[in-house]
Each structure stands twice: as structure tokens, then as C-alpha cells.
Amino acid sequence: MVLQTKTHSQKFSEGPFSQLIIRGVTLVNGNGAPPRGPVDIVVEKNIIKNIVVVGYPGVEIDDTKRPKLKPGGKELDAQGMYLLPGFIDMHGHIGGVAQGADSDYVFKLWMAHGITTVREPSGRGIDWTLKLKKASEKNEIIAPRIYAYTGFGQGSKDPISTPEMARIWVRENAKKGSDGIKFFGAAPEIMKAALDENKKLGLGSACHHAQTDVARWNVLNSARAGLTTMEHWYGLPEALFEDKTIQHYPLDYNYQNEQHRFEEAGKLWKQAAKPYSDHWNKVMNELLELDFTLDPTFNIYEASRDLQRARRAEWHETYTLPSLWKFYQPSKISHGSYWHDWGTEQEVVWKENYRLWMTFINEYKNRGGRVTTGSDSGFIFQLYGFAYIRELELLRESGFHPLEVIRAATLNGAEALGVSDEIGSVEVGKLADFVLVDENPLKNLKVLYGTGAIRLTEENKVIRAGGIKYTIKDGIIYNAKELLTDVKRMVDEAKSNEDYTITQPGMKE
Length: 509
Ligand SMILES: [Zn+2]
Known about the structure:
The chain has helices at residues 6-10, 103-112, 126-137, 163-176, 188-201, 219-225, 236-239, 258-265, 278-289, 302-305, 307-311, 316-319, 322-328, 344-366, 386-398, 402-409, 411-417, 480-498, and strands at 13-14, 17-27, 36-45, 47-53, 74-77, 82-85, 87-89, 115-121, 145-151, 180-183, 204-207, 229-231, 293-295, 370-371, 434-437, 453-456, 462-465, 470-473, 476-479. By secondary structure, the chain is of the alpha/beta class. The chain folds into 2 domains: 7-85 and 426-498, Urease, subunit C, domain 1 (Roll), CATH 2.30.40.10; 150-401, TIM Barrel, CATH 3.20.20. α2 runs antiparallel to α18, α4 packs parallel to α5 (188-201) and α15 (386-398) crosses α16 (402-409). Zinc ion binds at residues 91, 93, 121, 376.
């Protein structure tokens, strides 16, 4: 772990301050309220103390009516800017060994994209993550606040094979200081025992319902047993089956062959009950009654419906590490690199898969259900931070109003983590976690990308608009663009060390 020295970190951050006043900003809150401004936001150390509306659009602000700066306080002129609560990434792996992505690289990409909170659904091991969590809590490193969910069974001497073993492991996990558990599925009696024990302890849980266990235990079983959030989408179509009990696998299917795994997964929603049918409604309504959270992570599968889009994303050249780029390439070994023979047929099937999946997610939101935003970056051509903004765009595509997108990205995540009294919206008494951007993100979510949005000026000049300007966490102001510059430096260094240029799969250099 690299601890920032004082001088090193000053380039990237300032604060916290005895008093910080953010002046004249337009507030887009995470609670669903429409934009409002200009407002002055008063922060002391890392707590929001006051939010004062100081005028009207286009009218000069009367300075006598503004909150007063105390001696030693700091003012941030944010006129013309938009302020949102810090974003919450509910599915952020801090960086795998196979991807060669170390924590400093990943954290800076996240912070540069306004992500001030990350839930890690298992990673390099709970001790490693908890160490980073503590360092982030003390702001010794540049990193979002971390909620650590341990992979179920991780660290156990023997595979967990009985309900009693499951309960013991769950208690041990809580004792270590973990915030929850990430499941991939297990035998029903083990899932039941583990979820029951975890619920008693008041910890959170997430499950990627892997196809290996889903025939016996789908999303509905998990929700009934006390799971708090489901990841991705696996296990949901299975809960919606009407005319089968097992996915319609071709007979030469092999789960270890990821072209099989992902190609067939693309046909899954089509095998489930039709949108708005009785069974579809019944399953949705039961999940709603259980106050169950959906964390779809749309972006991580997007290459399945448009490989070229994901592969040629403009940020790869500048911000993707060589090791990560290599990991993404077609491979029988790397997870999520299932491009053995991926063509029009597979993409068209996946487009339909998305349409059905998005219909479910949007309607779940319309009926009062909680949908959150998770990225799962580091696989399938999805880059940390950038892919999170793409996730926001995909919620928009699903039918969410931009304000509903922002609420999913902020308050909903805080609620799912059980910390909505601290973060998730801009309210007096909450922590000073903010995103500041000099463009209106509701009009175009693309202004939140580190690379900004493309725009033509009145003078017929092409420019980049936006890119987050400041990310504030715990009252500390981070210069988002400086963080990105540092990521570029890391990537340049790795490229020059390895004499590496990014090329496309199968092409000669
Ligand atoms: Zn994941």
C-alpha cells in the first residue's frame, strides 16, 4: 500500500477545513428533488452544517444574505457548477492480481469519476481490503470509503459443506470487521443457514447467482432467506420460468467454456415469463414486499451486445494499463474474455436480452423498488470509473429519468448499505461527500466522463465539455482532473517499461 506523503497529496487534494463554504452552486440532490440554485453549502470539517438558497437564476446574489466565512475558513466559488452527492459504486472490485491493477490506480479512477463510496463484493482477501478500508477512513490514502463484503467461504480451511460450518464462518466473518458477504450460490441448506446467521448479525449480503447453483436456489429463494441485494441478473430469469425449471442449455454446453456461458446467458430472459404477465408481476411484487435491492451492473455485459463499442472506448488508449488490456483480450482462461467467435448473431440476441432485462428493472423502480448502481469493472473491456458513468447512461436507457438515475447512484446505494443517515444526499448533518461539475449532468450524463462530452461551439470549434472538476469526500476537495493526469502517468510509465502499444485483437502491431 502506498501512503501519500503530505507534499505528494497536496497536488491532488486540499482540506478538510474548519469551515468550507461552496458558493453559488446548483444543487442536484440524491433525494429526487429537482435542481435548485444558487445555494451556498456550509461544511465544517466533514459535516454539512447548512444549505442556504441565496438567490434566483440570472439575478445577482445579495452578499449580505449569504453565510459568513469564519476566520480560517475556505471558500469555493462554484457559480455555474452543479453539485451532486458523492456517487456510490455498489459493485467495485478494487483490482485483481490477474488484471495487474493496483489499488492506487483503481482508487484514482474512481475518485476522478465522483465515486466516494464503494462496496467491494469480494476481492484479494478480506484482510487486504480491511487494511485499505481503514486507511481510507483516516484519509491516509486517496480512496473512496469502502464497504467490504467477503466472498462466502473465503479463508475457510475446508470447503463449507454443512449448515453449521456456514454459521460458524458467518460469525467469524463478522468478528473480523467485514461489512457483509458476497455469495455466488451454494446448496440450499447452506445458503439458508448463512443468510439467516448473517441477518441476525445485521450485516449486508450480495449474491451473484452463478448458474452452477441456480437450478436449486434462485433470486426468490435468496430474497426470502434474507439476502439484501442481488448482483447482475442471473437467478432472476430463473425465478421467472414458467415452462421449464432449468435454463435451456445446448447438450454440448460446458460452463468452463465462457463462449458457451455468455452466449447462452444471452438467451435467458427470452426463456422467462413475458413482461407484465401474471407470473412476472407476481415475482416482482414479492421481491418488492421483501424490500429487496437490485444491483443490475448493466455495463459489465455491454460488450456482449456491442463488442466494438466496449473495445474501442476512447479512454482505453490513455487510461487502460497494458496488463488490463492484455487481460481483456480473447482468451479461454481470463474471466470475461469470451470472444472465441462473437458476431452479429450473438450481439442481436443480447440486444433483446437487454430489452427484457431493462423492462424489469425500470418497472421495479416504478413500483417503488430500490435499484442501485454498480460497475464490476476490470473485466470485459470495462474500465474503473468510466464504466460507472456508463452504468448511469444505461439506467437512463432503461427508462429512468436523469433524477431517478442520480437517486439510484446516491441515496439508493446509501440505503442498501444501511448508511443513509450519513451519506447519499446533501442534507444538514450528513457527511460532506460531493461531486462538482461545470455542466448540467441531467442534460447529458456524458459530461461526467473523465474525457468529457463532445460539443461544437458557436464558432464551429469542437471542444470537450465537463469532466468532473472536484470530488469531495469527508470535506476534502480532490482535483478530479489532476487525479486522472496521475492515472495517465501510471499508464505511460507501464507502457514505456514494457515498450507496449495498445493494439486490437488479432491485428499486427
Ligand atoms: Zn463482481
